[in-house]
Amino acid sequence: MSLTVSAQTKWLISENSSLGVKGSTNIDKFSCGIPSCNQSDTLTVWKSEKGVVLTGSIDPTVLSFDCHKKMMTHDLQKTLQAKKYPKLHIRFLSLSELPQLSNKPVSITGQVEIEIAGVKKLYLINYEISADSAKVIQLLGTRNLDFSDFNLVPPQKLSGIIKTKDLLSVEFQLKMKAI
Cβ contacts of residue 127 below 8 Å, gap of 6+? Predict the structure, then answer.
């Protein structure tokens, strides 16, 4: 089974899409996530003279992060300045190629703009894209980034005895339907 991406295709992002971050301290590893997006949005993909354009965005709420440990959740939300900047912004800009959608995941790359705590950065993202028998398109994106990329200082505890490392692994899974 495969789906064709035509000249201009629109994908509706499902609310059961998710976002996760993984990191570590000098003592342990942690994993935090937003298990579902509380909004739906549309991505549009088309081929232009400059390449494959992908437009649309997701704006997850920082206070929706759950690290499965109350103190870690609080520290992450505080570090991301949730009160001043209640949402993260991930804006999709391009793909390396027009995807051929099938039930076997295909690796592609794309450019996104990520905004955290008011700071915007461009990143190349590694994606795996596939479509299941119910024609649900899955776009799994992963990227390592640093707190310092966004002028943020990783959380510390016990007067700096426990320090969070600067590196974070970000992963988002978008579930979409062609419209």
Answer: 95, 107, 108, 109, 110, 139, 140, 141
Spatial neighbors of 168 by CB under 8 A, at least 6 apart, are 21, 22, 23, 144, 145, 146, 147
Strands 156-157 and 162-163, how do they pair? antiparallel
**H or E element at residue 167:** strand 167-178
Let me know if 23 is exposed, middle or buried by CB neighbors in 10 A (0-12, 13-18, 19+): buried
Instruction: Assess if residue 30 is contained within a domain.
Output: yes
* Predicted TM-score (pTM) of this structure: 0.87
Residues 6+ apart with CB under 8 A from 79: 147, 152, 153, 154, 155, 164
For residue 21, being part of any structural domain is answered with: yes
CATH label of the domain that carries residue 33: 2.40.128.110
Per-residue pLDDT tens over the stretch 98-111: 887 888 999 999 99
Which of 155 and 4 is assigned the larger pLDDT? 155
Domain that holds residue 77: 7-178
Is residue 143 situated within a structural domain?
A: yes
Q: Give the 3-state secondary structure of residue 35.
A: coil
Q: Total structural domains in the chain?
A: 1
